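sry for the spam today, last one i promise. struct tokens for design, 424 residues
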């Protein structure tokens, strides 16, 4: 390879990694500002009810709605991603997600338009789920299908880093606004600014992605043979076992994330009466542990295997889940920070290697559909009902056992990893 070719390849890799990171950061920012608002703002503005707990449960229900839209988004975008290509599909998913987020920023409240407000909010939340359902799989393939030999897990970790980056941007902005504005202004109009600001980030993501070319592996596979007419049908008829196992393998990361973020934020600011800004600051510090462990997990997975790293992360999650409830129940900032940091650190090991693990389960011309479908169905098992179940567990049995939801999800993930390792 000539020097100029080597430099050109290096710049191509940088563009690909930047596009996979920025795109998923934008998508996860959009997704997470909703999760934050669902814990802090939406219960009283969009879901009037007889008690704060009922309001919070209704708001968490709207949060869960997107998880049920994500498999549908995976099927739709996976179909076109496997038949048409990765680039065009990723651009479309980003526009859908960003458009729904922007419209939430303009939505009138229940006090202004009655029950139309929560209905429209739920429809827009469903649209967010459709967009994110097509986003992650395409971003992961964009990275790993451009990776040099021996670098697939490290390339595959870049879209995973979009999660902590998006979280920091979302919660950081809510923290800044909560500090600068009075509570009255924050609830009246300040909460809308993160949703409206999404438009700028979406334009940035589109600008980066429109400069990309198709991945070499997909282009070569498409030239060799035509893609399946209906990729999802082929997936379910020929690769159902891998899809189910991959779905189980993803459950732990979603359970950890939504218990340690959305649920913990709602519980900490309501039941424990911790100041909103203080709790957001705790979570912003804890999320840095997740970013660091994603990088470490990518390096470790290339040195060993993604399956091994994921399995160790699940084993650690089972133990952490047992300690989570009692430490949250202390109500003290230091124990809460430590357990949130431990949870999100472990999440890096059950999330970071998924970008390399899931695509490897499926042939090239089914990868977009297969990886997206497994990832987003795993979101239903691990994340969709996590804040709701955790809130119910507290009411029925107290805070002590709420972390067992994460332990159970990790055990499910271990079962999926065991199945794929046996088949491999």
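last one done:
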């Amino acid at each position: 390879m000539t020097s100029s070719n080597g430099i050109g390849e290096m710049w191509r890799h940088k563009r690909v990694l930047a596009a996979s990171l920025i795109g998923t950061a934008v998508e996860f920012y959009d997704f997470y500002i909703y999760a934050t608002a669902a814990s802090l703002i939406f219960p009283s503005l969009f879901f009037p009810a007889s008690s704060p707990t009922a309001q919070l449960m209704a708001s968490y229900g709207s949060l869960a709605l997107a998880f049920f839209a994500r498999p549908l988004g995976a099927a739709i975008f996976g179909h076109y991603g496997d038949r048409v290509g990765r680039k065009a599909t990723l651009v479309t998913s980003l526009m859908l997600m960003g458009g729904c987020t922007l419209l939430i920023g303009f939505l009138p409240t229940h006090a202004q338009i009655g029950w139309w407000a929560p209905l429209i909010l739920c429809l827009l939340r469903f649209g967010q789920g459709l967009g994110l359902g097509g986003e992650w799989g395409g971003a992961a393939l964009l990275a790993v299908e451009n990776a040099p030999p021996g670098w697939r897990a490290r390339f595959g970790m870049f879209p995973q880093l979009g999660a902590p980056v998006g979280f920091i941007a979302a919660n950081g902005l809510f923290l800044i606004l909560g500090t600068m504005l009075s509570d009255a202004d924050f609830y009246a109009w300040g909460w809308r600014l993160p949703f409206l600001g999404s438009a700028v980030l979406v334009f940035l993501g589109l600008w980066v992605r429109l400069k990309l070319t198709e991945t070499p592996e997909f282009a070569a596979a498409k030239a060799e043979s035509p893609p399946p007419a209906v990729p999802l049908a082929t997936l379910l008829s020929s690769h159902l076992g891998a899809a189910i196992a991959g779905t189980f393998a993803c459950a732990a990361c979603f359970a950890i994330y939504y218990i340690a973020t959305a649920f913990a934020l709602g519980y900490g600011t309501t039941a424990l009466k911790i100041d909103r800004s203080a709790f957001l600051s705790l979570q912003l510090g804890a999320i840095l542990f997740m970013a660091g462990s994603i990088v470490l997990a990518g390096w470790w997975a290339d040195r060993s295997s993604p399956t091994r790293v994921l399995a160790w992360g699940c084993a650690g999650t089972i133990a952490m889940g047992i300690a989570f409830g009692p430490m949250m129940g202390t109500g003290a900032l230091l124990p809460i920070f430590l357990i949130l940091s431990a949870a999100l650190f472990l999440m890096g090991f059950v999330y970071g290697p998924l970008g390399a693990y899931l695509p490897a389960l499926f042939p090239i011309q089914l990868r977009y559909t297969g990886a997206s479908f497994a990832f987003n169905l795993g979101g239903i098992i691990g994340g969709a009902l996590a804040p709701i179940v955790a809130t119910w567990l507290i009411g029925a049995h107290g805070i002590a056992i709420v972390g067992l939801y994460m332990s159970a999800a990790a055990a499910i993930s271990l079962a999926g990893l065991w199945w794929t390792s046996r088949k491999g």
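The mean pLDDT is 88. ok im logging off now
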